[in-house]
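Hi support team,

I've been running sequence recovery on a batch of backbones for a student project. Most finish fine, but this one hangs at about 90% for roughly twenty minutes before it completes. I'm not sure whether the input is malformed or the queue is just slow. I've pasted the structure tokens below so you can try to reproduce it. Let me know if you need the job ID as well.

Thanks,
M.K.
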């Protein structure tokens, strides 16, 4: 009698989130449908990212790659699920150093929706705004305007909600984390190598966190020689680098879904 109750009891103890992840259908980087947990052992760390072109995704995976050996020594498998397609996945792995075998894709954000992840204020564009205005605004963003006219408003709404989340609207914790990127954090380690240089358009920062060039303007930060902690603007510089790369990756990540974090 007790033995017959054990499977039911074990099932009841499994968290709802684990069951949703276990039962989800995603695709691997070759386009094959799979479960996020397929091929993993009994100890698996599953990380659900937003769009692969989003700079938070690159920042998080940079840290995951750094502890890859530690996870292996602890016999912990890593599975990363992000929104994007196979081409975006390749660009993302090339940039972040993430092993493609550990990445799974959720092109339509079905798992994200099922888990109830934050998706912004869910604003929609008023019908009185002409399509021509939306096309003009989208043309200045990565990926431009969609070729399918029926996707124009969903695409614009996705960008609208994404940018709202970047401003901290319906995205808990965003603004404090943005502030940490600019003001630094003495409880966190430094992130930018002393010889690291970040270029994004007309902005060049480096080597390190010292010299800054913004067009014709040049100056050097006063904390250039400090070491051993996350210095002011250091994390913001890392994010600038990731955003510059993300504009190329995000062009492959269709905005038919809302932004998620």
């Amino acid at each position: 009698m007790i033995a017959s109750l054990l499977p039911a009891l074990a099932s009841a103890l499994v968290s709802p989130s684990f069951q949703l992840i276990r039962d989800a259908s995603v695709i691997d980087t070759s386009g094959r449908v799979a479960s996020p947990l397929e091929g993993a052992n009994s100890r698996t760390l599953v990380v659900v990212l937003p769009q692969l072109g989003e700079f938070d995704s690159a920042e998080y995976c940079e840290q995951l790659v750094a502890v890859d050996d530690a996870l292996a020594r602890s016999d912990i498998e890593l599975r990363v699920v992000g929104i994007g397609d196979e081409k975006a996945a390749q660009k993302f792995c090339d940039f972040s150093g993430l092993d493609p075998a550990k990445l799974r894709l959720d092109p339509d954000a079905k798992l994200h929706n099922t888990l109830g992840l934050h998706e912004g204020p869910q604003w929609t564009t008023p019908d009185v705004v002409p399509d021509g205005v939306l096309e003009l605004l989208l043309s200045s963003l990565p990926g431009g305007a969609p070729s399918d006219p029926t996707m124009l408003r969903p695409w614009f709404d996705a960008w609208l909600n994404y940018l709202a989340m970047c401003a901290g609207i319906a995205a808990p914790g965003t603004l404090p984390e943005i502030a940490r990127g600019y003001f630094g954090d003495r409880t966190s380690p430094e992130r930018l190598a002393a010889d690291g240089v970040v270029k994004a358009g007309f902005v060049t920062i480096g080597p390190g966190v010292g010299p800054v060039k913004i067009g014709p303007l040049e100056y050097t930060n006063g904390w250039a020689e400090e070491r051993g902690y996350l210095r002011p603007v250091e994390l913001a510089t890392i994010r600038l680098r990731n955003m510059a790369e993300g504009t190329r990756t995000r062009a492959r990540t269709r905005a038919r879904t809302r932004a998620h974090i």
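--
Follow-up from support: It reproduced on our side and the slowdown came from queue contention, not your input. Confidence is low (pLDDT under 50) at residues 1-13, 251-261. No action needed from you.
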